[in-house]
Amino acid sequence: MNRYEIRIVGYGGQGIITLSKMIAYASGICEELLVTQTEAYGAQARGGRSWAEVVVDLDRESKQIDYPKALKPYDLLIILSDAATKEVKKEVIKKEENIGLLIWDSSTILGKFRAASKMKNLGLPIQKMAFEKFGDIVYGNAILFGIFTIVTKIFSEESAIETIKQFVPSSTLEKNMEAFKFGKQKAEEFLTQLKEGMS
């Protein structure tokens, strides 16, 4: 079994649970990998604390995922709110070379995010970019989904596009696709910088 552990944390209204379901759909339905998805949110759904986890078994020979929740150290941790930064400790990201990544929203996380400087991380003002480029913060999900598609390579771009078509209203499909491509571009720039930094 080759588990890929994903945790997404923020507050209700940021699309955290939808993003986790998109990752699960693209991995499980489109790529036919074994997947589990779990979620939780506070009594005050919008604005309250929210988290979601996805576990993807990258071993196509596996028959089941033995434990459904993501285990530390995570392969990927996405932090989307200032309050959620307390989730970040040294041990929560895998330390092996080229494994483990922190993605965080620099438009919702205030002040110095000290933990980010100690990890392989990508900090972007995701909600701000979604609003300024596409007119609504809801497109932050498509940006993150584009980033996820490129940095993890768990599923193909074709599977990602099929997933977007299944999850967004047809009236917003064009903008969601633009946001997805924008996220892909940011991820490719990030990977290029990482490669240059290691050379």
Protein described:
There is one protein chain. The protein is an alpha/beta fold and 199 residues long. The protein has a single domain, classed as Pyruvate-ferredoxin Oxidoreductase, domain 3. It contains 5 helices and 6 strands. A 6-stranded mixed sheet has the order 2-3-1-4-5-6. A hairpin with a 7-residue loop joins strand 2 and strand 3 (49-57). Helix 1 packs across helix 4 (157-167). It is globular. The chain starts with a strand and ends with a helix. The relative contact order is 0.16. The model has no long low-confidence stretch (mean pLDDT 89).
Overall pLDDT metric: 89
How many domains is the backbone divided into? 1
What fraction of the residues are assigned to beta strands by DSSP? Answer: 15-25%
Low-confidence stretches: none
Distance between the termini: 32 Å
Q: Please provide the count of β strands.
A: 6
CATH architecture: 3-Layer(aba) Sandwich
Helix content: 25-40%
- Largest beta sheet: what is the strand line-up? 2-3-1-4-5-6
For the biggest sheet, the summary is: 6 strands, mixed
Topology-level CATH name: Pyruvate-ferredoxin Oxidoreductase, domain 3
